[in-house]
Amino acid sequence: MHSHLTYAQPFVSEKSTALTGNVQVAGDKSISHRSLILGSQIIGCVRISGLLLGDDVMNTKKALQQLGVSIIQEGDVWVVQGRGVGGLGEPSGVLDMGNSGTGARLMMGLVASYPFTSFFMGDESLSKRPMQRVMTPLSQMGAQFQAHSGNTLPLSITGLASLMPITYELPVASAQIKSALLLAGLNTPGITTIIEPIATRDHTERMMEYLGLGVTRTPLPTGGFSISITGQPPQTFQETELHVPADPSSAAFPLVAAAIVPGSNITIANVCMNPLRTGLFTVLGRMGADISYSNQRTACGEPVADITLRYRPLKAVEVEDAIAPSMIDEYPILAVAAACADGISIMHGLGELRVKESDRLQAIADGLLACGMKAEIQGDSLIVHGTSGAVIGGGRVVTHFDHRIAMAFLVLGLNATKPITVDDSRAITTSFPTFTECMQSLGASILPERRSVRRIVPDHPLVIAIDGPAASGKGTLARKLADHYGLPYLDTGSIYRAVGMRLVHNHLDPHDVNAAIEAAKQIDEHDFANPQLRQERVGQAASIISAIAEVRAILLDFQRQFAATHKGAILDGRDIGTVVCPNADLKLFLTATLDARAQRRHEQLQGQGIEVVFDSVKRDLIERDTRDSKRHTAPLTAASDAIHLDTTDLNIADVFLQVVELIEARKAIKAA
Ligand code: DC
Question: Residue whose CA is closest, atom 1 of ligand 1?
Answer without folding.
Answer: 493
